[in-house]
Design goal:
mainly alpha; Four Helix Bundle (Hemerythrin (Met), subunit A); globular
C-alpha cells in the first residue's frame, strides 16, 4: 500500500472512531487552521491558497451546522445563526479577497474552539461508573 492510502485510512479511522465532542473539537481546530492560513494567504497575495482554505472552511461550517440540533438547548438557534453568518462572511471574504473579513471570522471561531476544548477536557475528567 502506498503512503497516501495509508494516510487516508488513518485519517478516516481517526475521525470515525472518536466521540462526537472530540469530533467537534477536531472540526473547530481545522476551521481555525484554515482561517489562519487563508488570512495569511490573502495578505501575501496567494489567492489560490486562500480560496482553497476558505472553501474548506465553508465545508466545515456546513458540517458543524448540519450536526447541530437547534432545539436541543436554548443556545441552539443562536449558534445556528452564527454558523449562517460565518458561512456568508466566508463566501464574501473569498469573493472579495478580504483578509479583514477572515480576521473577523477568526475572532468568532477561536472562542468557540476554546470553549469546546474546555468542555471536552471537562468530559474527559469525569469519572464514569465501571461498565459504562
Amino acid at each position: 500500500m502506498n503512503k497516501t492510502v495509508l494516510r487516508d485510512r488513518y485519517l478516516n479511522d481517526a475521525v470515525t472512531t472518536v466521540s462526537p465532542a472530540k469530533l467537534v473539537t477536531m472540526l473547530y481546530d481545522r476551521l481555525a487552521r484554515d482561517l489562519a492560513t487563508a488570512q495569511h494567504a490573502l495578505v501575501t497575495g496567494s489567492f489560490d491558497i486562500a480560496s482553497a482554505q476558505l472553501l474548506h472552511a465553508q465545508e466545515i461550517v456546513m458540517e458543524l451546522r448540519s450536526g447541530l440540533d437547534p432545539n436541543a438547548w436554548e443556545g441552539g438557534p443562536g449558534l445556528a445563526s452564527l454558523y449562517a453568518f460565518l458561512l456568508t462572511e466566508l463566501i464574501s471574504a473569498n469573493i472579495k479577497k478580504d483578509a479583514a473579513k477572515v480576521g473577523e471570522c477568526r475572532r468568532l471561531v477561536d472562542p468557540l474552539r476554546d470553549a469546546w476544548h474546555q468542555a471536552l477536557a471537562h468530559l474527559n475528567s469525569q469519572e464514569w461508573p465501571a461498565g459504562t
